[in-house]
Amino acid sequence: MKDLKHLIFFEDLLQEANNKLVQQAKAEGKYAIGYTCYFMPEVLLDLPGCFSVRLRAPRCTSPDIATYYMSSRVCHYARSLMERALEGGFNFLDAQMATETCTATCRFQEHLEQKHLDSVKDMRVIENDNFFCEFCDVPFKNNEISYNHFTEQLRVHVLDKLHENLGVDVSDEAILKAVEEHNEVCRLINEIGDYRKLDIPTITGYEFHVIQLVSLVCPKYLILPYLRETAEELKTREPELKKDFRCKVVLAGSENDDPGYTQLVESCGARVVADRYCYGAVESRIPIEIKEGEDPLKAIAKHYLLTSNCPRFMPQDEMRQRKKRLADLAKEYHADGIIVSSNKFCEYWSYERVIDTVVMPRDFGIPVCSIEKEYINSASGQLRTRFQAFVESIEIKQIQEGK
Predict the structure, then answer these.
(1) To the nearest whole number, what is the mean pLDDT of the chain?
(2) Whole-angstrom Cα distance, residue 41 to residue 154?
(3) In which element (H, E) is residue 339 found?
């Protein structure tokens, strides 16, 4: 297929958290607001005058110093973020909007807080005098009490703090404007992602992963023109004359912000056609609907709780619904199997991955490849062997079924 016009530019934007578009927005006087979890509504961090940056630690190889502060039994993602922060990679941030969801990233964010004690003055991690970190509690259930609680949490710990500390306009009109921009990003990402449903997709899983990530880590108003051009370009992009993959898979699991991981899967003969993982588009790019007369903030709070497929929701009905959601995705995107991966020491996803490995083949007849990995894919040789074996097992299954 013909190379996408902006792909190299997108790849460059992912090399550093403080990328060119972030620097441009900062130069224009905008405030950079970091976050690590889907439960922190990015749309509220994209209010006029500020922009959201979902934190990554690109090219981090050895989080040795962070391990000293966080221990070796904390997931590699959280330690990599901490390492990058200690290196000064997040000094551009004006605030970190934290969620008390994942324990590991919660510990990372606690270290970012400005300390005011003589004993810990050396722990000034973010070199920004005005930087602040605010924590928001997220419910474990989906019900009316949870929606009201989460709405109040977002009001007190996000909107009020952005207004008090940075002077951000947090009126309903400003929120609705941010939702409108957010929904355009969702529309474009979904339009681009729909090409993966074709018999021979006109976009690779790697390309889509890159595009989805830049929509999370760059100011929306600056990345939108490039997304529009890419969506238009794909309307006329011709597929390969001959199928260049052996099967299609859904990639699911915990935090995954490394397009190289998707690229590794695809180099083994599997085309990644859907992304049901943290940082993926399946949930994060569902448009936000606000009915007439509805409180915009409550609608947003409810949206993020209802659309999340995070395993921290543990009621049996929600656990079963997540399995059905995975099966429905495999059907919708014509996938032949599912690769479920969890980061080492990830509490929530280690349980979910094991359950998926049993339930998906047993109840839905869908083959599953179960992977426990590090944030940095240093064991690429071992992963390649696993993926190649999984692709071959799918091909054998198809032969046995006469496909």
Answers:
(1) 91
(2) 9
(3) strand 337-343
